Amino acid sequence: MAGGGIGTIGVKKERAENYKGKITLYVIIACIVAAVGGSLFGYDIGISGGVTSMDEFLRRFFYSVYLKKQHVHEDNYCKYNNQVLAAFTSSLYLAGLVASLVASPITRNYGRRASIICGGISFFVGAVLNAAAINLGMLLLGRIMLGIGIGFGNQAVPLYLSEMAPAHLRGCLNMMFQLATTLGIFTANMINYGTSKLHPWGWRLSLGLAAGPAFVMTVGGLLLPETPNSLIEQGNKVEGRRVLEKIRGTENVEAEFEDMVDASELAQSIKHPFRNILKRRNRPQLIMAILMPTFQILTGINIILFYAPVLFQSMGFKRTASLYSSALTGAVLASSTVVSMATVDRWGRRILLITGGIQMIICQVIVAIILGLKFGSDKELSRVPSEIFPLETRSAGQSITVTVNLFFTFAIAQSFLSLLCVMRFGIFLFFTGWIAIMTTFVYLFLPETKGVPIEEMMRLWEKHWFWKKVVLEDQQANTTTNGFNHA
After folding, report:
1. CATH code at 387?
2. Is-contact 180 37, C-beta < 8 A?
């Protein structure tokens, strides 16, 4: 291995202090265009809940739900309990789950841009199909195409952002994907608020407007450069260094470039990244790749975003008020993301996760109490207004993260309307329990990644009070085995 700096689990030299460069206009533009993928993800999250609350949409595709919605004596918790309606929302995430598995080898072998372009094209086709839908089959096909776009986009865009960003600002820039997602949700809510007044075709406009950012994402993928990490991984070191110098704004990139080359040489020695990520030395990343997205979904936040207008209408809000309330929720989410971006590289990821978990516990309990006391089957509320993986397993790890996220998103999206009908306000206490488990897990087992170069992430696990037992024992076992082999 070049430079003698590679062990069995990633880049061993700690050269971060020698990294040079700054945030350049080139990086900002590249990240903004790439983060359009996040806005599409957010738009599709936000648009579905608003559309499913529109009478014209329900009357055309889900007539039985429309009739239950008009029936004043129907149990409020169960008005929208329909598995086909739930499939309109959840089918997108099931398709994304399958697509993410296909996207992983494409992202690894052909670069991050290839997956971004595939995602943009799929988004565009899905938006056109949804806007032009004349029957349920065409509508669901459009959602499936959008899901394929999500599978490719969520696989490639976070990797692109992580690899383009300087180490000291990676947390902030990587959160551009999350910011774009929240802005996409807010935009979708505002559009739903406006199109709900355009009878009877407003829902078509809501669904079709996703074609705009999808086009931007596709063109951006064609124009943007590949990341230095991916270029080096594909054997194009000269071009990789040229791009690195360009995005860092300096020719003095030797330390960072050497880390990328070392990581790439190790990655090339790994022929089966999915098999490699199952090895003991990669156990910490594998567990994080599975549990963190699982916790994210089980907090209930996606359900609030998917079904906010439906929930507000079920509680007695009129259609316009429910859409307005959903838009307010999206605005708060986007504002909170801006605050997180401003503080993540100063305070760290763990602090934000833990404090966010505590806030969510309090809010979920309050929601459950209010619904339990003030809302029943015939009542209404008062009418008031991807960075922890080394290069050799990075695409596989991101694929696992996306797949787990989309699997639980699909499961929760498909089952929530039925769970709400059965568990009633208790569903929010169910989410509260999972938030408490998540916060405890983060406090105990997630190391802080603030300021750590992406190619040196493996060093974190060696220093962590728990994970070092797993990683170092595996290194010792490998060293002993290699020693016997050489003997």
Report:
1. 1.20.1250.20
2. yes
